[in-house]
Amino acid sequence: MSSAKFTPDSQRIITISEFNVRLDIWSLIDKSVMSINYPKYSDKGISFTTEGYFMALVERHDAKDYIGIYYVGNFSLITHFKVDMFDVYDIAWSKDDTCLIVWESPLECKFSIYSPTGEIIANHSPYDLTLGIKGVTQSPNGNFLAVGYHDEVCRFYNHISWKLIMDLDHNMSLADTSQIVT
């Protein structure tokens, strides 16, 4: 076993086997076990909706990335779709649970917004041929998505149109650092 975590309702434990061969869901209520084959990661690539009713999981089949959406009540598969990316790094539900934010490995500069049915809502790739995304986070109220890139720029997107609304450049010279209070 390479990882274990509770489901949001604390009634089940999710374990992932070594080499990410299988994800098992162990019920603490009736001791039943359900399995999902080929999760891509043991430490990321899994996200639950705010209320914990649905789980999104990054899966790897035939050297391609897919996302499976599962109903947590009985872990039945709701939808399964191929992701239009080379190497999915992680996923997160939007704060309002209406879409999935999916981003590439740090080697590619791309993230996409998908509906739970697999339709692409938005694609963003601000530059090419260099390192990509360092981090992704949503504002506590869910109105903004902040994406930090390897070009030292944090870009902010709104949650309605998923369009860029602002850039913050974090490049600082040595002269600028003397004004930082520690």
Describe the model.
There is one protein chain. The protein has 182 residues and is mainly beta. It is 2% helix and 49% strand. The chain has a four-stranded antiparallel sheet with strand order 1-2-3-4, with no helix packed on it. It has a four-stranded antiparallel sheet with strand order 5-6-7-8, with no helix packed on it. Strands 9-10-11-12 form a four-stranded antiparallel sheet, with no helix packed on it. The longest helix is centred in the C-terminal third of the chain and has 4 residues, at 174-177.
Layout of helices and strands:
Blueprint: E1 3-6, E2 12-16, E3 22-27, E4 33-37, E5 46-48, E6 54-61, E7 64-71, E8 76-82, E9 88-93, E10 100-104, E11 111-114, E12 120-124, E13 133-138, E14 144-149, E15 153-158, E16 164-169, H1 174-177
Antiparallel strand pairs: 1-2, 2-3, 3-4, 5-6, 6-7, 7-8, 9-10, 10-11, 11-12, 13-14, 14-15, 15-16
